[in-house]
Amino acid sequence: MNQFPAKNLLLLFLTAFIWGTAFVAQSVGMDHIGPFTFNAIRSLVGGLALIPAILIFGRMKSEERRREERAQRKTLLLGGVFCGLALGIASCLQQVGIQYTTVGKAGFITALYIVIVPILGLFFRKKVGPKLWVSVVIAILGLYLLCMSGSLQLQKGDFLVLLCAFCFSVHIMVIDYFTTKVDGVQMSCIQFFVAALFSGLCMLGIEGIPDPHAVAISWAPILYAGVLSSGVGYTLQIIGQKGLNPTVASLILSLESVISVLAGWLFLGQNMSAREVMGCVLMFGAIVLAQLPDRKKTRPEEA
Taking the model in full, what pTM does it have? Predict the structure, then answer.
């Protein structure tokens, strides 16, 4: 059996590419509006962007499929709510944490979900073989070389981003549970509206009502983060994760850190050190190792 379908791997890699190149939008968007305002609006835009796709695909479905989806509405709603809460909390923690730590440390700590996911998976009887554990260790070393420099002391921002990594891990596990039961695009749409509601409540309680002029100035990064990073990216994640080992999925998604560095080198003229290049090589090596098929062992007593 093919454990790592090419289509799923491609969708997750595309997700990582979108997220990696969206860092500029997230950074620029914070110049005029607060982190909760930014997340609330981008999540709302992401949900609205998926409504036309849901309507179009809905017309193409058979009547039998529509009956099945009506019977799954409760499960769909639960999945969207749980995914939305995990995503909303994780996004807000990340956005606030970036204000108090370096980008490199934030990238490394966030990507610790590649370690947290297989650990959480053990509680849900998700099998993680030695090869995947070796891949995780190599990926962590690659991320360290790629993102970390200077002190390893855990500051306020580091702690917030660490909590963010845990919430993203929960998000991956929730998707793994629900994605085989319901329509992925519909669940993604619900999760964005839930995340927008959570971020909006935080916005009103902490930042207050946003300034329309400040929001208008930030329209470009909001649209990019909302439509591509949120609407497209997280939807591709849900579809790509379907039937895939969550540990493998987390490894591929962690390429976001590599892509963000490469994007800075290609489009912003930011040079890469030998240390960063080695980190990229190790990250790609970890992904390739995770995808290699396992050898089947034949036991004498089974002959």
Answer: 0.77
